[in-house]
Design goal:
Mean pLDDT: 88
Number of strands: 4
Strand order of the largest sheet: 1-2-4-3
Helix content: 55-70%
Order of helices and strands: HHHEEHEE
């Protein structure tokens, strides 16, 4: 450290002041880059994850309530044509049915794109109205949505 002190002592008063200001600014920049910025970014990402978790919790609680409502009172068999009921409920929920094919006492429907939580809530609503899912295939589309093929049948009275 002695060579640095000798070098520093050889500077003029103005150069010494500029060097001290430079060291102080470097220290502030280092503290900002190494401490303040990472902590701020970490807090921001934590807030975002918390908000996402709260939304997911609300969806799960809503779905649990729907399942419990189904378990409390066994719904009656649907009245009228199953295809008409499914088409009406899909329109109400905002799902575009890619296909709807009657298959005896069952119907097979295809939904090209839907949010997973909304789709499962919609299926729970159908079960509350007396429709049962006989078979289902749900695949991710890669963009946060899913494609679903469902075979539905009416609950027997």
């Amino acid at each position: 450290m002695t060579p640095v002190m000798i070098w520093y002592q050889g500077r003029s008063l103005r150069e010494k002041r500029l060097l001290l200001i430079m060291v102080a600014l470097f220290a502030l920049t280092l503290i900002w880059a190494a401490v303040i910025r990472p902590v701020r970014d970490g807090l921001e990402s934590t807030r975002e994850r918390h908000a996402t978790a709260v939304v997911q919790l609300g969806e799960v609680q809503r779905q649990v309530a729907a399942v419990k409502a189904i378990q409390r009172g066994r719904p009656r068999a649907p009245e009228g044509a199953i295809a008409d009921l499914v088409r009406a409920r899909a329109d109400e929920a905002g799902f575009a049915l890619a296909s709807l094919e009657p298959d005896g006492d069952r119907i097979r429907i295809t939904i090209a794109t839907a949010k997973p939580g909304a789709l499962l809530g919609w299926i729970a609503g159908l079960e509350a109205e007396g429709l049962l899912v006989d078979a289902s295939t749900i695949n991710g589309n890669g963009d946060g949505t899913v494609a679903a093929t469902l075979t539905l049948k009416g609950r027997e009275a």
